[in-house]
Amino acid sequence: MHPLSKPTVDLSGQRFGRLVAISYVAGSPKKAWMCKCDCGATVEIRGRNLRIRKTSSCGCLKRDNLAAGIAVVHGMTRTPTYKSWNSMIGRCTNPAEPTYHRYGGAGVTVCREWREFAAFLSDMGIRPSGTTLDRIDVQGNYEPKNCRWASAKVQANNRGNNRLITYGGKRMTIRQLCDLTGADYSRTRDRICKLGWDVQRAINAPAQNKRKTA
Questions:
Q1: Which of 74, 153, 195, 203 has the greatest number of C-beta atoms within 10 Å?
Q2: Looking at the predicted structure, is the pLDDT value of residue 48 above 60?
């Protein structure tokens, strides 16, 4: 069997840690890609190793980590923390990711330091149970000052498409309004978003009972 002259998956232009895939090495038995490293070196890397993020530099990362006293083998590949980091990198750099159009395709980037897991771990710490990675400013990038580990409820309140209302002089989401007042969320949301009611009427009007028909 002859080595493939064309790649089965096009990685050109995609970033993997410090590496950017430039061109497929035609006829390569290892299905390798010629990559440009941030340090300036070029190196051939097996495509599969790039996709699973096994290789993320030309070798300079290992040297830099050793010089800084950082263990290269972190043993966290299967942990929730690493999976959050890996997903973040994928949706911001890989056009093949289903959500790329909402992140990398929309201009959302990952700061240079966080292209390495060790730096991300140092800044964010271990991912707490029940949380995922959240951007505080949903229009901003992935960087230390704009990220946190947040619960699903906090993230729901932080979505860019949330309807914001004013209550008691404060801006909040309808979910936050209902948490504060004890109003039913579904009914209040429908009253404000579908019927156009004002906030006071939406939370204070009694529920209408549907008449039973014989």
A1: 203
A2: yes
Contact 162, 173 (CB under 8 A): yes
State the number of CA atoms in the 13 A half-sphere of 61 facing the CB.
Answer: 21
3-class secondary structure, 141: coil
CA–CA separation, 11 vs 62, rounded Å?
Answer: 23
Six-digit token string for 100: 């790329």
Tokens in use for 132? 């995922």
Together in a domain, 85 and 37: no
Whether residue 180 is found in the same domain as residue 200: yes
Q: What angle do CA 161, 115, 56 make, to 5 degrees?
A: 135
- Please indicate, yes or no, if residue 212 is contained in any of the structural domains: no
Return the sign of the alpha-carbon dihedral for residues 190, 194, 200, 204. Answer: negative
- Residue with tokens 């707490």, as numbered in its chain: 128
What pLDDT score was predicted for residue 156? 62
The reported pTM is: 0.47
Q: Look up residue 98 and give its two tokens.
A: 């289903």
Long-range contacts formed by 199-205: CB under 8 A, 24+ apart: 199/165, 199/166, 199/167, 203/177, 203/178
Average the pLDDT over 162-170 and give the result: 77
